[in-house]
Amino acid sequence: MMPLLEARDLTRQFEVSQGMFKPRRTLHAVNGISLDIRKGEVLGIVGESGCGKSTLARMLLGLLPPTQGGITLDGTDIRSLGRKGMARRVQPVFQDPYSSLNPRRTIASIVAFPLEVHGIGTAAERRKRTLEILDKVGLPKRFADRYPRELSGGQRQRVAIARALIMNPEIVVCDEPTSALDVSVQSQILNLLMDLRREFGLTYVFISHNLAVVEHIATRVAVMYLGRVVELAETATLFKTPRHPYTKALLASVLTPEPGQGIPETGLGLAFPDPLNPPPGCPFHPRCPERQPQCSSLEPRLVRFDRDAVTCHLYEPGQVPAPTQ
Ligand SMILES: Nc1ncnc2c1ncn2[C@@H]1O[C@H](COP(=O)(O)OP(=O)(O)OP(=O)(O)O)[C@@H](O)[C@H]1O
Ligand SMILES: [Mg+2]
């Protein structure tokens, strides 16, 4: 089956200044990521804060050009689709429904805006379509002429989802879509996303630092560490038999999240990785409980297991694979 969205060697660097008299330095936010997403899949992306999830998401949306590598949609380089062409087919839902909705516009005009931009339909047709889509996301008609400030966080996120869906996109890239919401509202929004996926045949990229959410919603999971994908696997495989030592550590941390930090307490100590000073060899080696002598100098290669993959010396040919617990 041909991938719907495919990233090849996707890389994004930022030149960051470190103060007035210091030279600018290169930060590798995303470092050579290759992955593919098939129609109907939900690709979960997990990893600690700063590992490059949102940077990857913005590139997949066509909102940020990669410094290296490329993305194809149905085999077409997305650069040839342009901003508007991409926006018809790939839409975002971001974390914060408070800042992503224009406070001076009504809900109906926020949701209808993409139709206006693309010159679709008459005003009356746009209004009709807007009310239909508001209904699909569980917002009664009476919300149409209200303003974002009159809505709860969960209701605002429903508006953001309606706006994302009004163009009938194929792919929705959700970047922490429930992290800013009350726990009680989170599952309602997740269930809504799953219902909409079924109804509209959507494909999702779903970013979250919450592993329980990803296990619930994703069909495949990519685990990121310092701008790289260290493990890619079917959801059931990843949670049952994780391969990468980092994945194992993340799974072990699920029960002890650090509240409000967005960073799971991994039990890996405080040697939190600095993307300005990535360690040599395997970037995870300073924190890895299964570190081998070569890990501090030699970068591991991607080892494939069918569609799954892991980037770790333990799995390279000639190594005895570590037992998964
Ligand atoms: N515009 C930018 N300029 C400079 N550095 C940036 C820029 N955007 C992101 N970065 C850096 O790139 C790295 C990855 O950032 P990114 O936002 O992609 O991480 P993330 O995984 O989404 O984190 P979080 O879980 O906190 O949202 C970080 O070190 C960040 O500081
Ligand atoms: Mg982010």
Structure description:
There is one protein chain. The protein has helices spanning 53-60, 82-89, 107-117, 123-136, 153-165, 183-200, 211-217, 235-240, 245-252, and strands spanning 5-16, 25-37, 42-46, 68-73, 76-77, 90-93, 171-175, 203-207, 220-225, 228-234, 302-305, 308-311. It has 325 residues and is of the alpha/beta class. Strands 6-7-8-3-9-10-12-11 form an 8-stranded mixed β-sheet, with helices on both faces. It is globular and about 65 Å long. Mean pLDDT is 91; it is low at 255-263. It binds adenosine-5'-triphosphate (ATP) and magnesium ion. The site of adenosine-5'-triphosphate has 15 residues, from strand 1, strand 2 and helix 1.
Strand order of the largest sheet: 6-7-8-3-9-10-12-11
Radius of gyration: 21 Å
| Mean pLDDT over the residues | 91
N-to-C series of helices and strands: EEEHEEHEHHHEHEHEEHHEE
Please identify the structural class as seen in this structure.
alpha/beta
Low-confidence stretches: 255-263
- Work out the helix count: 9
Helical fraction equals 25-40%
Shape annotation: globular
Total beta-strand segments: 12
Percent of sequence in beta strands: 15-25%
For the report, how would you describe the main beta sheet?
Answer: 8 strands, mixed
The hetero compounds bound to this protein are: adenosine-5'-triphosphate, magnesium ion
